[in-house]
Structure formats: structure tokens, C-alpha cells
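Issue 218. Parser rejects a valid record. Input:
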Amino acid sequence: MEQGETREEATVEARILRQKGRLAEALDAYERAIKDFPDEETLWYGRAEVLRDMWRFEEALKAYEEAIERFPFKAFPRCGKGAVLKDLGRLDEALKVYSNACELFTNDAVPRDGRANILKEMGRLKDALAAYQETSKAFPEDCISRCGLAEVLRDMDQLEDALELYTHTINAFPHNSVAYWGRAETLGDMDRLEAALAAYGEVIRRFPNNEFAQHAPANILKLLGKPEAALQAYDQTIRDFPYDIFAWGGRADLLKRLGRLPEALQAYDYLIERDPSRPSLKHAKAAILIVLGEYAKADELLPSKHPESRDDWIADHGRGMILIKLGKLDAAVEHFEKGLKLVPFARERKYFQSALAMARLRRHEYDKAAESLIHTKEPMAEILKIHAYSELHRPDLAKQSLDVLETSCPVIMIPLRDALTARYELKTHATQYEDSWILEEECRVALLNAA
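Output the parser choked on:
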């Protein structure tokens, strides 16, 4: 810090460095500023946030605890502590921290929003819905509670309602980027390609310096079916913002979905080394290991407890897929039937539906396989419908699913779609595959698409 620098100048310098992604310099600036202005609370918060940005979560947790001790009557450091506990996968502790903050700061919406978010991540969707509704009613100027409510509606597969709420939120809070991003994501969930592309473009135009704008180009390219270009977009974001964990995670996931498994494993190992507490990274790596037949190694990465959170359900899906791969079909059917009754998240429920259908296809229960997918429209379900309806000698229904996939089919699923099309002579294709290849490819695609 230059001699004679004011409190405001020191704060602005550190904040700008953080915004530019120069996190090591930002951390140094915050620490120097704290020595000169130890009573400036925003400096303590900024330091903790930078540590969190740098994936130094244990240090960030300690920094927030120091801020709580120094500023016990402020809500922000307690909410920051709750957010870091969530990063560490310690959801029960995070819920307690946010609940305590809600009791202490009854006139602040932020702790309430944080608590509702944890309830959502724990799979307590009805509780989260009620919490967000209560906060939105008590704090009508709080846009975060509205966006959180819309996100819960997405998880409950109420996509039209979620889209409507995001649109209303944008109209009420036109300068808030979260609602624009949520709207774009929801349109993507609904397979409304042109509208989703336009919505991502609007994010870039309205918020060019926002982190959402950094990720929008890759999302656009994925929607356009240009995964290699999307990968380049992630690489560019990482070059500009080397600590952007969402870009790193998106890159690893894309490598996985492209079937570039050695590169994907390397990417997940890098992330796990730097963020060992994040369950989703381990579960994604486990999915790759299951595809490669390394079940024992995958098992070490998957928790055996009863699933509650979204990450738990992804892990439970992986365990069921191991049963299919091992040929334990009765156990797999029982596993996925049980899961379908309990999984609260709409997206993860679709993964369970597809997995159950795969187990039934292997037991030659084609009618039951088709029945389990009748209300599911996502691409993996359409792939499996082609298989089931063709075996049931219903080419008319199989062709309906094929028509959907010819309009929009993820890159990872195209070889499987074409193999089924050739196998059942729905169209003329030069390449023919053995039935065993089709069965294995269904498992591979489902695993890499879900985790």
C-alpha cells in the first residue's frame, strides 16, 4: 500500500484486483489494508471472499470466523461462513449457521435466503419453497428470494412456473443478473433452443463484466452442438480467470461428455486435489471409473449413506449403475425403483427413470421399460424408447423418438442413436453394431451424462 493511501482507496484497489481475477494480488492488498484499517469490516469480508475464490476453503472459513469475532453484530460474516460450509459439503452445519443468523438478524433477508438455499441443496424442496415464499413476502425488494423460489420450481420440474417467475423478476429488478441467467438456464431445460440462445446473449449484452457473462459463450456453443468450440471457450475463461471453479468444472464435464476420458480424469484429479471436499467432483470421477470397469476405485468415491442432497442422489445413481454393469439386474431394478420413490430433484429423477429402463431392457421387460419412460422427454429417455419400442414391434413409436433426436441430440448420444436406428432398420445406416455394444453404450452414455 502506498504511503498515505486512504481507507477508500485501499478498499477499492483490493476490490478491483478481485474483479479482474488477480486474486493473489487482491489477497495481498486486503491483508495490507487490514493492517492499516483494522476496523474496516468490508476488508475482512473481502479477504475471506478472495480465499474462497481461490478454493482455500478452510482458510476462508477461519477468516469468516475471525470476522464474526470482530464484528459479532453483523450478518454478512455469518452468512459467509454458511456459504463456505456449503462449499465444503457440510450442509447440516451450514443450516445451523444460517438458522442462527436468521434468529439474530430478523430484519435481514440474506440469512433467510441462505437458509432456504441449504434446504434446497439438502433435498427438502417443500421446506425451501416455503422459506423462499415467506422471505419474498416479508422482503418484497429482495430479488434473491424470488430467484431462489424459481430455482426450487426448476428442481420440482415446474418449468413453466419457474420461467414465469424469472420473467417477472427481470421486469421488477432489471439490473439483477441472477434472474437473467436463471431464465436462460430454464429455457435450456425446456429445450427451447432459440429462446435460450437469445437469453444467454442478453446476459452477455447486459452484464459484460459479470461472471455469468464469462460462462455464457460456452453454454451457447453447447446448445448449438459445438462442444469443441465450447471447450475452447472454457479454456479462454480459465486463462483469463484461473481460479474460476465453474469454468474448470464445466471444462471437466465437457471432456467427460465428449468421451475424452483420460483427459477428463486428469481434469477431475486436478479439481479434487484443490477442492477435496466437493462431493460432485468425486462422483463425476466415479462415473468415469465405472465406465472403465474400475468398480472398486469408484466405490471408494461414492458415499454409502442414505441419500439426501443432490450430490448424494448422483452417487446413489452411480451405485445402481454398478449393479447393472455387474449383471445384478434384480438388485438394480430394486435399487432404482426405491430411489424413484424418494428422489426429490426432477433432473436426478430422470436419471433414475432411464437407469431403471436400462435394467428392464436387459431383463427383456420391454413393455415395462417403455412404461417407465412414458412421461420423460429428455434425450436419454428418447434413446431408450427407440430400443424398447423397436423390441415391442412398434416402429411408429420408435420413429417418434427418433424424430425428436434428429432435431436435437447431444453429441455423446449420436453414435448410440445411429446404432439403434441401424439395428432396428428405422433408417439405412452403413454402420452396424452388436447388441452387446448397444447395451454397454447405453450404460456409458447414461453415466457420463448424469454425474
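Fixed in the parser; the record now loads. The chain is about 75% helix and 0% strand.
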